[in-house]
Each structure stands twice: as structure tokens, then as C-alpha cells.
């Protein structure tokens, strides 16, 4: 009986759907958990920024013969740091600065691709190509998953303090800027790792909607992250299944399902 | 017993020529409830920020029991204005209070319970922060501040969102803390007859206008005639 089960599992790993399924499970779990942290830190706009900023890094990494994900993470992080650097102390101009850098980075990426004659499938980077995912994509997602777990394990209390009272956190000796940098790095890593599953642009939906649902009445950030992950896995599995049944692209379908899930949010007066 | 002495403090925001505080001297002694009053923009929050060590004065010095503030460890705790907190954060009251010991020695459950009891919200420990009233939230924030190992507490407009009965209850808690030997400096832009509840009042408007017992400060302020009375936290 046990031998049969092992053989069945070994056979399953060779089927076309095994890696995409694992990838969507991990992506569906980690993106919303990351999103829950970012929403409570009021930094979700950073997701938009980083997801658009990864493109020039991906392109340059390919030119230099480096792993594209390394370039993507670095340029995403540089974009986030640039935006914070140009923002005034009262954060009054953050949104305008962010939008400028966001569109500029996307433009730079689009310019670099023909300039260097880079062979890159722009559509799959932006919107995902789950069904052609490789073990390398799965490995990248596992690294971002472990990085996120490490960040939460080592700095959970500090992240809670910063999210609740940033000034008070700094007063109590917490290195707020270092932790924000770590948060930005992990965000960039999560976005780049979700590239194969849903694409860097569509990952915004997975980082937002399940997290919004998970945060409802959660008594702690831990619970909010876990609930968000469960919602994320549910949305992702639904999208994956429907994509297979109706022969559609999973990334965009998951984003559309996210809009439908907004209907489960409590009404404003509740 | 822990005393704080600030002498001739001056401060301007970086890159700005406008002087926010000038020649400000303050002394906080153990067991004393002190009110810091002044109009909007008088520099109250800036002074609390300097006394807490978050900002550094351009001139002057701050010491605790003769030791410079920077070398005194965590002897001073600041309870911020409620507007500076993210009240929608997913956290319970006991979760918030426990944060008072992040980066300090780990708290025991007894310390946490004691802080909750001191401000009278033990029954609310498991409630989510955003389900509380404004007064209960302020008490939870005070309990978090009490978890620090500090002996000197600076409270920035703790009564700004409270109705008069809640203000009186809050003042009672602060009086009990002073009686327990702590030193408290409470800022408010409201003042009036209720200032009598304080041991000492400091009137600030960029510089010290008056300082001393409530009666003395009121007399002096009447003679200066630059402020208008209203209902006060205390």
C-alpha cells in the first residue's frame, strides 16, 4: 500500500500540473501574508512601485548574464529607496513621487529591451505564465518564502511595534529604517518570485485582496497573516482550476477572482 | 528617586531659522504631577520630544540625577498623542501593552496584569484595540507606557479626545502614579480651574511664561493676559 503511494507520488511529480500547482500554492500563501504586513504598515503602495520597478533590473541582469530575479529584486529595491529619498518629511509628495518612479521604471525597462536586443517574453513577466513554470521558479518562490518566514520569526514584535507606533518604536531603540529596508527587500523578493505564477503586475491583487479579508477582526498580526494566506490559497486554487477547465491564463483569472472576493468584505457601516 | 533637570534648552527644526524653544528650563521631581500648558504651536510636544531624548536640543542640557540624558538609559517614557498611532492595527489590548517591553527586558505576565490593573482595564485585555472607546484606548496606551522601566513619564495631550468624566478618571490614575513615586509631565493646550489638581504648572509659549503652583501660574498668566481659559484635562 505504502509502496503504491510512493510510486503514485513519484509519477505525479512528472506530470505537467505538479510544479505549477506547488508554485501557485506557495505564491497564494506568501503574497497575502506579505500583503497583511504591508497593509498594517500602510506601505501597500510600495507593492505597486516595486512591481513596476523590477523590469529594468530583469533586463539589465539578462544583459550582464546574471540571474534575472537578482536584477529584479535589486531594481525593485532601488526604486523603493529612490521614492523614499525624494519624499519630504511629512510624506506629502509620496504618491506623486512614487507614480513618477513607477512609470519611469516601466518605461526604462521597455526601452532597454530593444536597445540591447534582449530576448524576454514581456507578457509572461508582467502577467505570468504558470503552466510553463520550471523547478527554478519553484526554488525562487521557496527562497522568498523562507526569507519572509525568517523576517517574521526574527522581528515579529518589532514589526508590530513599527506598524502600530513608528515613532514610539524608534524611541524604544528599534532600528526602524533597517527593518523598513528588510521589509522592502522581502517585498521585492516576493514580487519577483511570484513572476511565474501571476506576473509582477498581477501579484498586486494577490498581495491585496486576500489580506484585506484576512485582516477583518483579526486579534493579532499572526492571525491576520494566517487567515490571509488561507484566503490566498483558496483564490489561487480556484483560479488555477478554472484556468485548466476553461483553458485560460491563470494569472489574469486569479486577479479577476480577487475582484469578486471583494464582495465578501463587510459593508462600511458594519 | 529619579529627578530630571533641563537647563536653558533651545531648539529650532533642522533647516529652519524659526526658534521653537528658547531658554527653557524644567525640573521634574519624584511624586510630582506637573502640567505643561500653552497654546497650539507653543512647543509643548517639541519639549517632550527633547526631554525624552528623541530630539537633541541646539543649546542647553538635560540630566537625570546628574547624569546626561543620553547616558541614562530608558529612564524617561513618552506616551504619544493619540493621532500618532495606527488604531486599526490588528492587536488586542494585552498585545499593545506587552509592546511596552519590546527591546527591554522581557515582561512577566504579572507585570502586564499589574499595568492593566493600574489603569483599570484588566477586563478588556482580550479585546481588539479598535473596539474600545477613546478613553479606554488612552488607558491602554498608558498601560503600555507603564511597562517600560521608566520612572519619569511624559504624556502628550492624553486627554485631548476624552469627555470630562473620562478626563477626571484619567487624572485620578495619574495622581495615583505620582503618589507611587513616579514623576509625570502632562501636556495640554486646555487650562482653567481644573489646573488646581496638579502639583505644579509650567506655562510655555516658546519660552517659559510662568512656572510654579497652579495659583502662582494663574496669577502670572492673568497679568500677562495672553491666554484664554477653557476646560482643562486636569
Descriptive overview:
The complex is a heterodimer of chains A (270) and B (234). Chain A is built from twelve helices and no strands. Chain A is an all-alpha fold. Chain A is globular and about 60 Å long. In chain B, helix 3 (109-118) packs across helix 4. Chain B contains six helices and ten strands. With 234 residues, chain B is an alpha/beta fold. The A-B interface holds A 40, 42, 157-158, 160-161, 163-165, 167-174, 215, 217-221, 223-224 and B 52-54, 74, 78, 80, 84-86, 88-92, 95-96, 99, 102-104, 126, 128, 148.
Mean pLDDT over the full residue set of chain A: 88
User: Total strand count of chain A, please?
Assistant: 0
Order of helices and strands of chain B: EEEHEEEHHHEHEEEH
Largest sheet report of chain A: none
The CATH class designation of the largest domain in chain B is: Alpha Beta
Q: Within the largest sheet of chain B, what's the order of strands?
A: 6-7-8-3-9-10
Low-confidence stretches of chain B at least 5 residues in length (pLDDT < 50)? 229-234
In DSSP terms (H or I, runs of 4 or more residues), the helix count of chain B works out at 6
Taken together, the total number of domains of chain A comes to: 1
CATH superfamily of the largest domain in chain B: P-loop containing nucleotide triphosphate hydrolases
Count of helix runs of chain A: 12
Looking at how many chains there are and whether they match, the oligomeric state comes to: heterodimer
How far the N terminus sits from the C terminus of chain A, by CA atoms, comes to 53 Å
What value does the Rg of chain A take, in angstroms?
Answer: 19 Å
Query: Ends of chain B: how far apart?
Result: 25 Å
Largest sheet of chain B: 6 strands, mixed
- Quick one: CATH superfamily of chain A? ABC transporter involved in vitamin B12 uptake, BtuC
Amino acid at each position: 500500500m505504502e509502496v503504491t503511494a510512493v510510486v503514485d507520488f513519484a509519477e505525479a511529480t512528472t506530470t505537467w500540473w505538479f510544479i505549477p500547482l506547488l508554485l501557485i500554492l506557495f505564491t497564494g500563501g506568501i503574497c497575502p501574508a506579505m500583503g497583511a504586513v504591508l497593509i498594517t504598515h500602510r506601505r501597500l503602495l510600495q507593492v505597486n512601485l516595486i512591481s513596476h520597478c523590477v523590469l529594468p533590473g530583469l533586463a539589465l541582469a539578462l544583459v550582464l548574464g546574471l540571474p534575472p530575479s537578482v536584477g529584479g529584486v535589486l531594481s525593485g529595491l532601488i526604486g523603493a529607496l529612490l521614492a523614499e529619498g525624494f519624499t519630504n518629511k511629512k510624506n506629502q509628495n509620496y504618491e506623486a513621487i512614487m507614480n513618477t518612479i513607477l512609470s519611469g521604471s516601466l518605461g526604462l525597462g521597455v526601452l532597454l529591451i530593444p536597445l540591447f536586443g534582449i530576448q524576454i517574453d514581456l507578457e509572461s513577466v508582467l502577467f505570468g505564465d504558470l503552466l510553463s513554470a520550471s523547478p527554478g521558479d519553484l526554488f525562487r518562490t521557496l527562497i522568498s518564502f523562507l526569507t519572509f518566514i525568517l523576517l517574521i520569526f526574527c522581528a515579529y514584535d518589532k514589526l508590530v511595534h513599527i506598524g502600530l507606533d513608528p515613532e514610539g518604536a524608534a524611541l524604544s531603540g528599534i532600528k526602524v529604517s533597517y527593518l523598513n529596508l528588510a521589509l522592502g527587500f522581502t517585498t521585492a523578493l516576493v514580487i519577483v518570485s511570484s513572476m511565474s505564477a501571476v506576473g509582477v503586475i498581477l501579484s498586486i491583487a494577490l498581495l491585496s485582496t486576500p489580506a484585506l479579508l484576512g485582516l477583518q477582526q483579526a486579534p493579532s498580526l499572526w492571525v491576520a497573516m494566517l487567515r490571509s494566506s488561507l484566503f490566498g490559497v483558496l483564490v489561487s486554487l480556484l483560479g488555477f482550476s478554472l484556468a485548466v477547465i476553461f483553458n485560460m491564463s491563470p494569472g489574469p483569472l486569479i486577479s479577476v477572482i480577487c475582484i469578486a472576493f471583494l464582495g465578501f468584505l463587510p459593508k462600511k457601516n458594519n | 528617586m529619579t529627578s530630571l533637570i533641563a537647563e536653558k534648552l533651545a531648539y529650532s527644526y533642522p533647516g529652519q531659522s524659526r526658534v521653537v524653544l528658547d531658554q527653557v528650563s524644567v525640573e521634574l521631581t519624584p511624586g510630582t504631577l506637573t502640567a505643561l500648558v500653552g497654546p497650539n504651536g507653543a512647543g509643548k510636544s517639541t519639549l517632550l520630544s527633547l526631554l525624552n531624548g528623541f530630539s537633541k536640543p541646539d543649546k542647553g542640557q538635560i540630566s537625570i540625577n546628574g547624569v546626561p540624558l543620553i547616558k541614562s538609559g530608558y529612564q524617561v517614557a513618552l506616551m504619544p498623542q493619540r493621532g500618532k498611532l495606527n488604531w486599526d492595527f490588528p492587536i488586542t489590548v494585552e498585545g499593545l501593552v506587552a509592546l511596552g517591553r519590546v527591546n527591554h527586558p522581557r515582561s512577566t505576565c504579572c507585570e502586564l496584569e499589574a499595568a492593566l490593573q493600574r489603569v483599570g482595564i484588566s477586563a478588556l485585555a482580550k479585546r481588539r484595540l479598535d473596539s474600545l472607546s477613546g478613553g479606554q484606548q488612552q488607558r491602554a496606551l498608558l498601560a503600555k507606557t507603564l511597562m517600560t522601566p521608566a520612572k519619569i513619564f511624559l504624556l502628550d495631550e492624553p486627554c485631548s479626545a476624552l469627555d470630562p468624566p473620562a478626563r477626571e478618571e484619567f487624572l485620578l490614575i495619574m495622581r495615583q502614579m505620582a503618589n507611587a513615586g513616579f514623576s509625570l509631565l502632562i501636556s495640554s493646550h486646555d487650562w482653567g480651574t481644573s489646573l488646581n489638581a496638579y502639583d505644579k504648572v509650567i506655562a510655555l509659549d516658546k519660552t517659559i511664561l510662568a512656572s510654579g503652583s497652579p495659583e502662582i501660574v494663574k496669577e502670572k498668566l492673568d497679568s500677562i493676559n495672553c491666554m484664554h481659559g477653557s476646560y482643562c484635562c486636569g
